[in-house]
Amino acid sequence: MRLIYSFRSRNQSMRFYDALKREGVAAKLIGTPRSVSVGCGLSVQFSASAEGLAESLLSRGGYDTFLGAFRDC
Questions:
Q1: What pTM does this model have?
Q2: What is the dotted CATH code of the domain comprising 2-72?
Q3: What is the model's pLDDT at position 41?
Q4: Where are the domains positioned within the chain?
Q5: Minimal CA–CA distance to 33: which of 61, 56, 59, 67?
Q6: Closest CA to 55 of 16, 10, 28
Q7: pLDDT tens-digit readout, 4-62
Q8: Which of 42, 40, 44 is nearest to 28 (CA)?
Q9: Which residues have CB under 8 Å from 40's CB, separation 6+?
Q10: Ramachandran angles phi, psi of 70, nearest 5°
């Protein structure tokens, strides 16, 4: 299973993607799926196994435009 994290800011989407990559997480920048239809149109997709690390990065990274996490089966 994969997770999609959406942000209101394209800049913060890209910054979060870079932070995951620095930690060795296989992540992708993707267009936000229509079913989610929130945010800036750019989201970060990665394996659910990295959810704990992602939450840690969110809490220390000042991502004030984070909208939410969505499951992509």
A1: 0.89
A2: 3.30.70
A3: 83
A4: 2-72
A5: 67
A6: 16
A7: 999 999 999 999 999 999 999 999 999 987 776 665 689 999 999 999 999 999 999 99
A8: 44
A9: 7, 8, 9, 10, 13, 32, 65
A10: -130, 140
